Amino acid sequence: MKLTALTLILLMSTMVWAQNDEIYLKNYNLKKQIALEGYDPVSYFNGSPLEGKSELKLTFRGAIYFFVNPQNLSTFKINPEKFEPAYGGWCAYAMGETGEKVKIDPKTFKIVNGKLYLFYNFWGNNTLTDWNKDENTLKIKAEQNWKKFLQ
User: Fold this and answer.
1) What is the mean pLDDT of the chain?
2) 116 DSSP β-pair partners
3) Considering the entire predicted model, what is its pTM?
4) 148 pLDDT exceeds 90?
5) Distance (Å, whole) CA 113 – CA 93
């Protein structure tokens, strides 16, 4: 009886994890399952986003992350959630302002309280500038809007 209950619990937790991965892949900013347009997530926290190498990759929640060196890959493995971008890697400003998924420039970013935020920066429109004008309000709205995508 105990073995059957344990098996059932493990099966259900696997199903929930798979469902979460499905939501992740559906809503995150990925191109051919590659996150951050191939930039190394750890490099942002080291001060400068760098393009990762396709031979140094790791799949997390179905998304593929590239890394510039084995050390960054190892760092990511220890705590991958720490390095995931806010709002699935979509523009933080747009998520807060309109609740839309808007593409980003992977070199336009900000780290706030240990979280990576990415922004649209094309054609003279750098949304990081607008974000900085009202970050607290936009962040609250963005959190609310992002939750809708994860249901």
Assistant:
1) 89
2) 85, 111
3) 0.85
4) yes
5) 17
